[in-house]
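Aim 2 progress update. The chain analyzed this quarter is reproduced below.
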Amino acid sequence: MNPKAKGMEAVYLVSAFASSNNLVLSQKSTFKKSNEITAIPYLLDLIDCKGAIITADALNCQTSIARRYYPKK
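Predicted structure tokens:
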């Protein structure tokens, strides 16, 4: 059933997934009238990313996001 058919809006989620364990570590909904770029920093702050390999699609290859977790030395 289409969520808008009942006057409800769809919820868009971004997920952090541990592929080695087939486990969703965390999920964050995107802000209304926004996209996943604004949700990614909040999502990654919920989990310990130290020493982890993080993969994302091209939309999330933002300098501001990369520098947050891999600052210049």
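The chain has one domain: 3-69. The chain has a mean pLDDT of 80. These observations will guide the mutagenesis experiments scheduled for the next reporting period.
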